[in-house]
Write a structure and sequence with these properties.
29% of the residues lie in helices and 23% in strands. The protein is of the alpha+beta class. It has one domain: 2-Layer Sandwich (Ribosomal Protein L30, Chain: A), CATH 3.30.1390.20. The chain has a three-stranded antiparallel beta sheet with strand order 2-1-3, with no helix packed on it.
Length: 62
Amino acid sequence: MSNLKNKFITIKLIKSTIGTKKDHRATIRGLGLKRLNSTASLADTPAIRGMIRKVNYLLKCD
Protein backbone atom coordinates (compact mmCIF):
# COMPACT_ATOMS: atom_id res chain seq x y z
CA MET A 1 0.00 0.00 0.00
CA SER A 2 2.46 2.55 -1.19
CA ASN A 3 0.17 5.26 -2.54
CA LEU A 4 -3.46 4.78 -1.57
CA LYS A 5 -4.51 8.22 -2.84
CA ASN A 6 -4.03 7.23 -6.50
CA LYS A 7 -6.31 4.21 -6.20
CA PHE A 8 -9.47 6.16 -5.40
CA ILE A 9 -11.36 9.08 -6.92
CA THR A 10 -13.63 11.32 -4.85
CA ILE A 11 -16.54 12.83 -6.74
CA LYS A 12 -19.25 15.27 -5.70
CA LEU A 13 -22.59 15.97 -7.37
CA ILE A 14 -22.67 19.77 -7.80
CA LYS A 15 -25.50 20.18 -10.30
CA SER A 16 -29.05 18.84 -10.23
CA THR A 17 -30.08 15.96 -12.47
CA ILE A 18 -33.47 17.54 -13.19
CA GLY A 19 -33.84 17.94 -16.94
CA THR A 20 -30.97 15.62 -17.83
CA LYS A 21 -31.18 12.51 -19.97
CA LYS A 22 -32.48 9.34 -18.40
CA ASP A 23 -29.23 7.45 -18.97
CA HIS A 24 -27.25 10.29 -17.35
CA ARG A 25 -29.46 10.06 -14.25
CA ALA A 26 -28.88 6.31 -14.21
CA THR A 27 -25.11 6.87 -14.45
CA ILE A 28 -25.23 9.24 -11.47
CA ARG A 29 -27.10 6.60 -9.45
CA GLY A 30 -24.60 3.99 -10.60
CA LEU A 31 -21.79 6.13 -9.24
CA GLY A 32 -23.53 6.08 -5.85
CA LEU A 33 -24.73 9.68 -5.82
CA LYS A 34 -28.30 10.37 -4.74
CA ARG A 35 -28.79 14.07 -4.04
CA LEU A 36 -27.06 17.38 -4.54
CA ASN A 37 -23.70 17.77 -2.73
CA SER A 38 -23.45 14.04 -2.04
CA THR A 39 -19.97 12.55 -2.37
CA ALA A 40 -18.59 9.15 -3.23
CA SER A 41 -15.11 7.69 -3.09
CA LEU A 42 -14.70 5.13 -5.87
CA ALA A 43 -11.94 2.87 -7.15
CA ASP A 44 -9.93 4.36 -10.00
CA THR A 45 -10.85 1.99 -12.85
CA PRO A 46 -11.42 2.63 -16.56
CA ALA A 47 -15.14 1.88 -16.16
CA ILE A 48 -15.57 4.45 -13.39
CA ARG A 49 -13.55 7.03 -15.34
CA GLY A 50 -15.82 6.48 -18.35
CA MET A 51 -18.92 7.02 -16.22
CA ILE A 52 -17.42 10.20 -14.77
CA ARG A 53 -16.52 11.47 -18.25
CA LYS A 54 -20.09 10.88 -19.43
CA VAL A 55 -21.62 13.14 -16.76
CA ASN A 56 -18.65 15.42 -16.05
CA TYR A 57 -20.84 18.54 -16.36
CA LEU A 58 -22.70 17.47 -13.20
CA LEU A 59 -19.68 16.50 -11.09
CA LYS A 60 -16.63 17.85 -9.34
CA CYS A 61 -13.70 15.44 -9.07
CA ASP A 62 -10.95 15.56 -6.44
